[in-house]
Q: What sequence folds into this?
């Protein structure tokens, strides 16, 4: 099941994608939560009632995907947890090649740093070094703390895609990456969430790719994660409680713009960047310059 957030007549809606249409859940039940995170909170991670609601939809509750104004799959994620340095080939192409991480490298992003499918990613006035990063995203469905390898993946409701855009020079100003990873509208998340039951456990074995203006820049497989999702969840929940609607960006493979030879490749105005994760979908964003 593909669950999508969208805007209609200025209001937030939640829907289920069926072919080239979306079933508008608010048109079926006006009281249904219009944010996936809120739905997961109210139903303790259970998506079956959402699927049952979609089955009741009349023809008038269906809209074409073409022309849909997408919003983030989770409108208001409580936490956005990101993994850095999670593919060995990516580690080796950067400044940490001689310092392979022994534990998951976790950091946080703000919601203001992410835009939805088809919205513009913004290259800031202050820097040209806007880099792309293809990532698989896991969406948390229920409260989780002190997970074990036996139960870690039980808390995951589904998966999505992200372009975890980075302003490289600001990322390297200090040993902390927060500034370079959180410029407003510098990354993206979408186009929808695919429920976990339709994908391999932990999102393993999926081809992941980034394309800039149609040219493949990154191409890898989630089997190559140094710290797979289950291990990351166990590590994170030793100290951080996960809640419904939290999202986890699982890291990017090699081929990022700063490592391109002979010259770095940065996203710029007029470019279109696509992130594709097998069996999930294609996240597409044009690039625009920040207005003075």
A:
């Amino acid at each position: 099941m593909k669950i999508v957030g969208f805007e209609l007549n200025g209001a937030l809606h939640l829907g289920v994608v069926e072919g080239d249409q979306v079933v508008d859940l608010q048109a079926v039940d006006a009281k249904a939560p219009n944010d996936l995170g809120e739905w997961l909170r109210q139903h303790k991670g259970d998506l079956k009632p959402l699927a049952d609601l979609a089955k009741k939809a009349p023809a008038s509750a269906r809209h074409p995907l073409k022309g849909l104004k997408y919003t983030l799959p989770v409108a208001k994620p409580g936490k956005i947890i990101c993994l850095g340095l999670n593919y060995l080939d990516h580690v080796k192409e950067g400044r940490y090649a001689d310092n392979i991480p022994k534990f998951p490298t976790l950091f946080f992003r703000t919601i203001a740093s992410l835009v939805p499918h088809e919205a513009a990613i913004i290259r800031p006035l202050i820097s040209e070094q806007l880099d792309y990063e293809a990532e698989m995203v896991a969406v948390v469905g229920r409260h989780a703390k002190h997970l074990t390898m036996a139960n870690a993946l039980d808390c995951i409701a589904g998966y999505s895609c992200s372009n975890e855009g980075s302003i490289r020079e600001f990322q390297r100003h200090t040993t902390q990456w927060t500034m370079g990873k959180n410029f407003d509208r510098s990354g993206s998340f979408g186009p929808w969430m695919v429920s976990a039951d339709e994908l391999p456990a932990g999102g393993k074995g999926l081809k992941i790719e980034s394309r800039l203006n149609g040219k493949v820049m990154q191409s890898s497989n989630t089997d190559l994660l140094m710290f797979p999702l289950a291990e990351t969840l166990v590590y994170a929940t030793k100290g951080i409680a996960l809640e419904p609607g939290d999202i986890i960006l699982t890291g990017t493979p090699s081929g990022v713009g700063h490592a391109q030879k002979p010259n770095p490749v940065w996203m710029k105005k007029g470019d279109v960047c696509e992130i594709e994760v097998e069996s999930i979908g294609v996240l597409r964003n044009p690039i625009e310059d920040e207005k003075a």
The CA atoms of residues 33 and 226 lie 36 Å apart. The longest strand covers residues 187-195. The longest helix spans residues 48-55.
